[in-house]
Design brief:
This is DUF7122 domain-containing protein. The protein is an alpha+beta fold and 186 residues long. The protein is 21% helix and 26% strand. It contains four helices and ten strands; from the N terminus they run H-E-H-E-E-E-E-H-E-H-E-E-E-E.
């Protein structure tokens, strides 16, 4: 092995890596990235703006952290040394996969700010969605992929979860522990 090759191998092994057992703050920009594959704050904000029309001002007071491979957490506050804690804030987004996926908790908290890729469900559809049922909705003419499912409650559109829309079907990705049998109220 040449000295150059040995030096390159040594430098690569010295590069920071993702430690799945601790929280690490996301870098501000891709140029600030030290851990390969880690999303940056700018990329996360761009994704929410592009996918759902939620402006970065909504997240101004929040910090973003990664624990595990691509599990992004959002936290409103300052953590002095989060590396020793089990949880900071709430899970927010799954990255490090082909299609990023928002969590149901993030959609519940921030989805009311969305202006794009929001599918309004009627009472029957909302009840089925909350129960975890997939359903045919060929009338949707928006983007495919992850959508924010909403339902009108007391005159306001309220986020009820994340759905995956493919081939005229809305797939409920509401976690089993969060599913509910809701009465249908017209």
């Amino acid at each position: 092995m040449s000295d150059d090759a040995a030096a390159a191998g040594e430098a690569a092994s010295d590069a920071p890596t993702n430690d799945g057992q601790q929280f690490d703050r996301l870098p501000e920009t891709p140029a600030d990235r030290e851990v390969q594959g880690r999303a940056s704050r700018a990329e996360v904000l761009d994704w929410w703006a592009e996918r759902f029309g939620i402006g970065e001002g909504v997240f101004e007071e929040y910090g973003f952290w990664e624990k595990g491979a691509g599990k992004i957490w959002v936290f409103n506050g300052e953590a002095t040394d989060p590396s020793e804690v089990e949880a900071v804030g709430m899970t927010f987004l799954r990255t490090r996969q082909e299609h990023w996926k928002p969590t149901g908790r993030a959609v519940s908290r921030f989805g009311a700010h969305a202006t794009k890729n929001v599918i309004e469900l009627d009472p029957e559809q909302a009840s089925r969605f909350a129960a975890g049922d997939d359903q045919d909705i060929p009338e949707w003419d928006g983007d495919w992929g992850y959508l924010i499912a909403t339902h009108e409650v007391a005159g306001e559109s309220v986020p009820i979860g994340v759905g995956l829309y493919l081939y005229d079907e809305l797939r409920s990705v509401v976690p089993k522990g969060s599913r509910a049998d809701l009465p249908v109220v017209e």
